Amino acid sequence: MTVKVAPSLLSADFSCLGDEIKRIEDHGADWIHLDVMDGHFVPAITIGPVVVKSLRPQTELFMDAHLMVSKPENHIESFVKAGANLITVQAETTAHLDRVLRGIKDLGAKTGVALNPATPPSVLEYVWSLLDLVLVMSVNPGAGGQEFIPTVFPKISYIANQIRSRDLSTELQVDGGINRHNGPDIVRSGATVLVAGSAIFKAEDGMSLIGELKNSGQ
Ligand code: DX5
Ligand code: ZN
Prior knowledge:
8-stranded parallel beta sheet; about 30% helix; globular
């Protein structure tokens, strides 16, 4: 079974994002992973809706916006209007997760919830029916190029079992420190979408990794 690969633009060359998108598209990328950071939930500040709006006409690829921001409810509409297809909010950033997810759906976008490495999957218990995607963070959010945190493996398997036993079509995305060495195990644990940034954009042979990761479940 092939998994989807969503290269994270965070590690791309920001002076030519249009060209970088073309490169990953030419090498078989399924999605584009947009890391949005507000300098508050995480120290770094990255991109806003205006960048998404400028990239949208450059590609047909599915864009998933990973909002690593406080008060995500204040930003969802602008990212959807800019052209993001899926909005992922961090479970840790809102006390009103059900309301935020319903708000994303009302805007016509797909929904996702991201769990930091220390966040238990129990937060998903009462929102499964609202979820198009669960994002298991395998690094602490805020930067690319970090080491994969292996303690998330049981969480990936647990969530995969929840999705299977509830007969849901929810995507299981894993994000952070993914490379050709750990990709197969992550897929075997149940991931259906792999996010990789530095392994794709910062390595000599990074573009070929897209195809390798897509087939890492074989
Ligand atoms: C981290 C981001 C990740 C990161 C992945 O806060 O959410 O998407 O950019 O980059 P790598 O693959 O380099 O860990
Ligand atoms: Zn991300």
